[in-house]
């Protein structure tokens, strides 16, 4: 299906929306303040060698010198067996580098506190399907691609792209990739490495040779093999940057770039802002009147399907089946839109017909086939639930845009007014036993204060008689519902 990319760019945040058939399918968000330097390649200079630590400090132009251990100055070993790895003996750091030497290094760990960045000389350049290894001469395949037939197919294709300059690792995402997609990825990575080498010869030491691209460039790189018809950018500066980037690295998309200068905000064109807000809600309405309830937890994501209305007995089974089939399309879209990964449990409405179950699974598989992220459906369990997994590629949209509620602390619920009232009464009794006071003043939220003086006034009166002391209630507008204080007077 043809797609459009909408790029909304501000100095502090970049948002990219993928639109298919006029409907938002994916949303990507990156905050400038949270970008690290992992993956960046620098031309650095060894400032100090520490034989006792088997390490060296390298000046790459940052505030703190970066750290390079002897074990990180080794040939590519990502795809060789454990026996082969043992052949690579870590030599003494003094034999590997010397003070004042210029090195091309890559950051593998961001600076943290007083510690500088962690470096390696084992350079790798990732794209959507492949990882380029300059200087290597072999092809490695991700261990997560289990099919031996697929592994061999991919290896045979990618081996043709290897030369004396470098080899490749085939990533898990490439399992279903076509030869065209792999060829485009390989060509992109070779062009990228060629530019790094040009800069190495041209730039002075302590310079950045390659910066891990920002969100806009990464997505254009990853979408190069997709049927993108248009890329709209609402920032002139970013538009010029992307023109230069696509001209050098992704020429297939260069002519599809357009600067958006309309009066209406770009994300309002396809109701994108409202769709983002809806992607944060638990409930997703279906056109038939049914709905989904999506709950994201640490362990898994659960999706519950409901008909949403009473249906007659005669057509009940057919209505349930149709609702479940409609839900498969909505589920596939919501998984992409919210970027939900890991274990996903789907509770379809119970179906008595095995034929209906098979057709619902087929419909779910077809809907998920449009997903660029790898998914695996395990079918119905004995309890009638569908188990599936979706590869985690980045934070979910909820985790990026939201934080735990300060009122409920992430529980998703708060204590009722009645529950808090009884807690107040128990706290008064506890304090009265522990301390000598003439009377008590209770500060509570307006709702709790009203209930203590209204529906629960008899309970409060009985407590005053029991402890023999006056209890005054004062409403505190700034208190949340569960918050209260018992003050002795």
From TrEMBL:
The gene is rng. It comes from Vibrio zhugei. It comes from the Bacteria. GO terms for molecular function: hydrolase activity. PROSITE patterns: S1. SUPFAM superfamilies: Nucleic acid-binding proteins. This is Ribonuclease G. The keyword tRNA-binding applies. Signal peptide: none annotated. Belongs to the RNase E/G family. RNase G subfamily. Its cofactor is Mg(2+). Pfam families: RNase_E_G, RNase_E_G_Thio, S1.
